[in-house]
Design a protein that fits this description.
Helix content of chain A: 40-55%
Distance between the termini of chain A: 87 Å
CATH topology of the largest domain in chain A: Rossmann fold
Number of helices of chain A: 14
CATH superfamily of the largest domain in chain A: Response regulator
Low-confidence stretches of chain A: 1-7
Radius of gyration of chain A: 26 Å
Number of strands of chain A: 12
Structural class of chain A: alpha/beta
Oligomer: homodimer
Largest sheet of chain A: 6 strands, parallel
Chain lengths: 342, 342
Amino acid sequence: MTKPRSRRGGGRPTIADVARKAGVGAITVSRALREPGRVSEDLRRQIQVAVDELGYIPDPNARALASARAEVFGVLVPSLTNNVFAEVVRGIYDSLSDSPFRIQMGNTHYSGLEEERLLQLFASQRPAALIVAGIDQTPQSRKLLETAGCPVVQVMETGHDPVDMLVGFSHFDGGRAAAEHLIEAGYRRIGFIGARMDPRSQRRLAGYRAAMEAAGLFDPRLVTTTPLLSSVTLGRELLRDALAKMPSLDGVFCNNDDIALGVLFECRRAAIAVPKAIGIVGFNDLDMMQAAFPSVTSVRTHRYEIGRQAVAMALAAIAGRRPQQRVVDLGFELIRRESTAR
Amino acid sequence: MTKPRSRRGGGRPTIADVARKAGVGAITVSRALREPGRVSEDLRRQIQVAVDELGYIPDPNARALASARAEVFGVLVPSLTNNVFAEVVRGIYDSLSDSPFRIQMGNTHYSGLEEERLLQLFASQRPAALIVAGIDQTPQSRKLLETAGCPVVQVMETGHDPVDMLVGFSHFDGGRAAAEHLIEAGYRRIGFIGARMDPRSQRRLAGYRAAMEAAGLFDPRLVTTTPLLSSVTLGRELLRDALAKMPSLDGVFCNNDDIALGVLFECRRAAIAVPKAIGIVGFNDLDMMQAAFPSVTSVRTHRYEIGRQAVAMALAAIAGRRPQQRVVDLGFELIRRESTAR
DNA sequence: ACCTTGCATGGTAGCGCTACCATTTTCTGC
DNA sequence: GCAGAAAATGGTAGCGCTACCATGCAAGGT
C-alpha cells in the first residue's frame, strides 16, 4: 500500500506527475519537451505550466536508457593543464553550455593505451558525439571511433583521411613558416628546441627541417629535444644544452611558447642579446608572448575556435546536416615581434 | 517473434547475456561486479570469464536509473583555462581515473547565477559527490548543496563553516605573508595589483591591507584593481596605472603570477630595476616564476594536492567513513627569490 | 456517401540494471 | 543430530523515460 515512488526515487517529480497535473498522457509531455512542433499549442502551454510548477527536470539517465542514446559529448585530450588544450576545451564547453548536451572529458596523458581505454569506456555509453585530439590513434582506437555510431570530430590537426570530421591546422606548415621567417630575417644557425615530442611536435619539427634543408642549412646537431613534459624551466635547460652542442647557434624555433619563454629568460640571464645574437620564435602565441620584453614572435593558432567549430560540426551532423566539407583547416598566423627583428 | 534486443539496443551484451553464459542469475552477475565479497569464489571466476569473452561493459545509465544514484562527480569551477583551477581539476581527474566514477565538469565563468543553474542541473542527476570552488555560494546555491544528498567538498579556501567538507588554504594569510615579506625586505610604498577581483582575490587584498596597516604603511592609492580577466598583458597595464597614481611605488604584491610576470616585463621595458627599485611578489608560484629573470618571489599553493585531497575526502564519505576533520588546510609557502632580494 | 491521408494523442512494452524479498544451501551451537 | 542463523543465489518488480504501434478525428479526394 506504500506509494512505490517513496521507496526509491526520493520524491522528485517525474514525467508522470507532470502528465497528471497537465491532464495529458506521459508521452505527450515527453514530446512537448523534445519535439514541441508535434504537440498542439494548447497542450504545450498547459504542459509548460505543469513543468514550471513542479520544477520538473527530466532524468538524463532514464532518457539515455530508453532512447539508447545519451546526450553526452565525449571529449578526449592528452592534457588538461596544457593551455593549448584548455582553450580547445573552453571552446567546446562554451558552445555546448546552452544545449542539452553534457560533456564527458577524458585525459589520455599522451598515452595511446590510455586513449584506447577511455575510448572504449566512452563508446560504451553511446555518446551523441566524440571529439578527440589528434589523428594518430592506434588502429584499435581508430576502429572504435569508426564503429562508435556517432559523429566523430578529430581536432588540432589537418589531413586527408579523417575518421569522420577534422578541424585544425597544419603543424608541418606552422613549423616551416617559423623556420622560413628566421631564415628570411637573416639567421643561419637556427636550432629546434622541443619537449614532449608528441606527433604534433614531430610534424612541426618536420616542417622546420624541410625549410632548413630547402635553404641548405639543416644540421642534425641543431635539433634538441626531450620526452619530458614541457615547461618554462625546461626551456632554459634545453637552450643551455643546445648552446653546449652548438655554440654558434643564432636562432631557435621553440616547440611551444613555454619553451620559448624559458629560452628568452635564459638568454637574458646569460646576457645573450635578443634578437641581435639569437632570434626566438615560439608556437601558439599565448598572451604572454606579446607582453614579454622583448616581445616574442610566435605562430598564432586558433584553439578556442577549433573547439567551437568542432562542436558546430558535430551538432550539424547530429541534426542530420552533415557539413559539406569534412575537413576544416583553420590555419595559423605568424606574428612577427621584437625577438626576431634583427 | 523478433528478438526484443535487436529492436533497439544495438546488440551490445547485457547483464542477462553474461548471466546466461555463466549459467547464473542476472542479479548474481550484478553482485559479482559490485560486491565481489558476496559471491562465491567459483561463480565469481565463471562470471569473470563470461564478462571477458563477451566484452561486457555495464551500462552506467541503467545503473543510475535502477539505483537512483549516478557514479558521477560533479565539479564546478569558475574557469577552465586559469592554470590554478586546471591544476585542481587535474588532481581530481588523476584521483578518479581508476575508480568507476565519471566526472561532470561545469564552468561557472565566475558567475553566481551560472553556478546556481549548473548546480541545479548537476543535483538533478543525483551525483555521488559534488566538488565546488569557493565558499561564497549564493544562499540559493548553498541550500542546493545542503540538500543534494551527497558528500560536498568546497575547495580552494579555508573557513569554519563549510557546507560539508572543505579543502584549501587561507588567501588572507597568503596575502598578508606576501606583504609582510616585502615590508621585511625593506620596501615601503608597496602596491597591490589585482585583476578580476573574485572573493579569493578580495581576501588576498584584505590580508595585504592588514599587514600594511599593522606596519602603518597602508594608503588606498596603493591599490590598483580591475574587474577584467587577468593576463600578462593586463599586468603590464596595471603597473603603468599604479605608477601613474603613485610614482614613488617601490614594491608590488600581485594578485597572481600572470599579473606578476606582466609587471616584471613592464619593469624591464621601462628600465626599472628589479628588485632594486621595485620588489615583486606573485601568487600561486607557477613554474615560470622560478625560471624568470630575475626569478620572482611567489606564494606557492598546492593546487593539485587540493584536488586529490578533495576526492579522497569525498570517496571516504561515500564509503561511509566521513573524515574526522571536515576542514583541511593545506597551507601555502612563501618562496623567496631574486625579485625581492634587495 | 465512402475511403484515404495525415495529424494529434495515448497505451503498452520495454531499455539494462538493481532493491527488495524469497528461497535454498551451508554453517554454526548445543 | 537438529533447530536456528548466516551465507549464497535467484525471482520479481520496478527506476523514469521513449519507441512503437494503436486510436480517434478532421480534412481532402472521388
